[in-house]
């Protein structure tokens, strides 16, 4: 297996400053405002700004004519008040002179429509011309800032693949053929065999004949080809980014290099992230419109990002309501922004930049509200940011070098499994969506749950649930069986290991490579499209319910117990959930999907039989989460409720000013407390 040891959910960023600040857009403000900004933002605790991701036109107004003055002056002014700068390569918005001279750099969607200048991300990562200009602007900026002590690091581009990630331009087609030839070692027969081109007479004789797959022309395309196309998109953007990273590292090896993800068709546990120092992430919880669902959904996103490579830098965080085109978010209420920011930190952020310094008066995001309003009068959002700034200045540095604790893991975010599924869904939800339901079922009951990739360090986990990773890598088996032998509880959802990593169905009896570990055979499976019409009742422990989406009738091996049984129709009496003891642990196989009907029952059952670690006993709506290193534990208590609540906490030192009386803290509405416990070697 490829060495991915570097990318672990337990890894921290290695930053030695906890950065707090915002993106900053000097190109949007006149001189009068710009001169006052450094002091205004320093007073709110800023120690960093991020700049230039959309400013290519300012830096190189004409081909080859560079003008760094606006950024030089801004970096200098902010530097004078102790605020450092993260710069960005500005390749998300190439200037008009470039697209005018080279319209061939524009991306083309799967309907053949060419993108245009006028919004952003319109250029192709596969275009040799665009790549050359990307290297050129990166080199010019890197050279200019190499010795500037106020520039501490870089963000590549901006949110690669955030709007759409496909590309069918002529450059993309050529690169596709290059990619395929590399992947299949120049042997077209290998492609034919791997993709199963015998089906529907797809046999190719040359790589140049292979089209990029487009939707429904006239009907479904080959799922293996679709998956390889997603691999190709990842390969292309990784190569594009690497060219920038190499230039930056050569100019100044002390700079950190990151990227603000996490969007589609990029393998964030792959080379893309290995080329960076750590991942960055943009967190906008108010895209989750229902305030009751928001904490669980935000927690899942943050845990998912951490599962890619560990702690991360939040390069953009919601600070006001976001508004664009046809939507406008709820305005965070007083205290909500601070709470959300601490929540992101509790879940692994090693730095926090609030988007954005001030609402812009023009452009597609003129209602994307920031810390300051259009009129630049500091109001409650600024005051709240200043409180947060003060707290972070004191506590942030102590959190660097700590990892986020979790003892229940969900294996659900895997690039190949997700994209393979996407290429042929059968109308079933993808592993990432299923992971959300599994996460929520534990999170809402106060368990210490997160997301962990099967390749990752599983040592701190008591329980690992595999959320229907149908495209399962056989190389994960060894890790999973070691985890179980040492005492872990593994819970495998239906359809896991039913396909290979090329998106073809495995020839083995299911659950394929997991059959011996789980000690079970899948005798029959089926989709449940209208479970209310032909209900299949399932009983587990003290509960029975009608399953949905999918059923599997199981046959246990000798020594495997049947713990759940089908109760109705032709399945009556057959095994639905099995359990096998292996070493010191157990393997459950669940013959249905982890839906929101099924998942709470599974949690109940696991709790009942004593397979779950303790619930953290706070009242509903108060989240508890820990960051730790070898000697200290930081326990975060986050009140997502609109009213004050009193919570029990472990004895330790209260760090955010709450009085700790008899191990109880009173948390205000949307309040956050942190308790430090010294001398605890959490693992
Ligand atoms: C992010 C993006 C920013 C800005 C923000 C608000 O996704 O990186 O440039 O667009 O959203 O829409």
UniProtKB/TrEMBL annotation:
It comes from the Bacteria. This is Beta-galactosidase. SUPFAM superfamilies: (Trans)glycosidases, Class I glutamine amidotransferase-like. Keywords: Glycosidase, Hydrolase, Metal-binding, Zinc. It comes from Pelagicoccus albus. Gene3D superfamilies: 3.40.50.880, Glycosidases, Golgi alpha-mannosidase II. Pfam families: Glyco_hydro_42, Glyco_hydro_42C, Glyco_hydro_42M. Residues 24-394 form the Glycoside hydrolase family 42 N-terminal domain. GO terms for molecular function: beta-galactosidase activity; metal ion binding. GO terms for cellular component: beta-galactosidase complex. It catalyses: Hydrolysis of terminal non-reducing beta-D-galactose residues in beta-D-galactosides. The active site is at 159 (proton donor), 316 (nucleophile). Belongs to the glycosyl hydrolase 42 family. Residues 621-676 form the Beta-galactosidase C-terminal domain. Substrate binds at residues 120, 158. It is an enzyme of class 3 (hydrolase). InterPro entries: Beta_galactosidase_C, Beta_galactosidase_Trimer, Class_I_gatase-like, GH, Glyco_hydro_42, Glyco_hydro_42_N, Glyco_hydro_b. Its EC number is 3.2.1.23. GO terms for biological process: galactose metabolic process. Residues 439-608 form the Beta-galactosidase trimerisation domain.
